[in-house]
Design brief:
It is a single chain. This protein is an alpha+beta fold and 133 residues long. 58% of the residues lie in helices and 15% in strands.
């Protein structure tokens, strides 16, 4: 009789352990299934944002200014365009912002553009060439 009680206790422990392991493995699946779609941006919005980004990048490339091609363009779900990268002058930065503002679907433009001066240009500013008459 004693051995049957021991077997029964062992079987109950194994069953409890198995249930615990299965429950532990299934918990992430249950949590993922409960994940709601309301916190995600709908695919239609993503496509719209991508289309705005492509339009802005295309217009910047059409300007044939080498530094405008290297500007990163990102668009959020509200149509706000964020420009970042390096340009050669304030004029180029202003042109990039203007192009983005004029693009269909853009609600506003955030500029994180930095003016990057080349070393040779900097030398000219600091030590302008001396003209002797």
């Amino acid at each position: 009789m004693h051995s049957s009680l021991k077997k029964e206790l062992t079987m109950k422990i194994r069953l409890a352990t198995t249930c615990f392991v299965i429950g532990t493995l299934l918990a992430p699946i249950a949590a993922h299934a409960d994940d709601s779609v309301t916190d995600r941006t709908p695919p239609k919005t993503f496509v719209k944002d991508s289309a705005i980004t492509i339009k802005v990048k295309t217009k910047l490339a059409e300007e044939k200014m080498s530094s405008l091609v290297h500007i990163a363009v990102d668009t959020d779900s509200k149509g706000v365009v964020i420009l970042s990268g390096n340009v050669k002058s304030q004029k180029e930065a202003d042109k990039a912002v203007s192009i983005a503002r004029e693009t269909e679907g853009v609600t506003s433009v955030e500029s994180n553009l930095k003016i990057k001066i080349k070393r040779n240009d900097l030398k000219q500013i600091i030590h302008p060439p001396v003209v002797v008459f």
